[in-house]
User: Fold this.
Amino acid sequence: MGKILAICTSPKRGTVKTEVPEATLTPEWGIETDAHGGNWHRQVSLLSAEKIENFRKKIWVDYGAFGENLVVEGFDFRNLPVTSRFQVGEVVLEMTQIGKECHNDCVIKQQTGECIMPHEGVFARVLHGGTLHVGDEMTLTLWRRGEILTVTLELTEAVEK
Assistant:
């Protein structure tokens, strides 16, 4: 199970997103107030909070700096298969893509030589809409003939012997 730590939006593409306390998602569109909304496969971007925390050991970045819409604790998104589905209340997202090219070597990549979005960020489309709030729980779901089966995963740290 994951937890939404931040929701970030921007009115214009190619800009840093800013945090908002909630967002309304519309099926086959995305976040209503975000520039990336539209009838395409990258309606919502997600990034693992743990990946941002690791990056912050190099340089501090605010949530939204990588252009991510949702910062979620508890999932390593890049290790899940495309078509994975996530549920937050009534909202259902389907992962459509892992990674993307960095925009003309974004500001973060220019400063640090690295941007994590190309290899850690994922994208999703909205299958069922609703409103998300910071602090909401996110579950990985399986679908079978119209049924939603919830999967609870526990993350454990590898212990070196």
